[in-house]
Design goal:
single chain, 91 residues, 2 helices, mainly alpha
Length: 91
């Protein structure tokens, strides 16, 4: 069974945020080797927090509208042709 698109997006955002934190921590530790390893942990947590924020924004901005569209499409396919879907965009 394939994983859902949302799950793959979540995992890719989390991996990207964690990798960004690791890269930032590695660069800082290269130039300032006396920094504590708590800094590395802080960078990883910050990267994960940014990834979660990106996922949340994606969910609010895009996926909520797609769910609304899916509900309207299901109602119309069920015979309720009075169903309206008010989604506007300049895309």
């Amino acid at each position: 069974m394939k994983t859902s698109i949302l799950r793959r997006l979540f995992l890719s955002f989390l991996a990207f945020g964690t990798a960004s934190g690791l890269i930032f921590a590695g660069v800082v530790l290269f130039f300032m080797p006396r920094m504590a390893y708590w800094f590395v942990l802080g960078c990883l947590l910050a990267g994960a927090a940014i990834a979660l924020a990106n996922y949340s924004l994606l969910n609010v901005i895009l996926l909520r509208k797609l769910r609304e569209l899916a509900v309207a499409a299901n109602a119309i396919s069920g015979g309720d042709v009075r169903r309206r879907c008010e989604i506007e965009s300049n895309d």
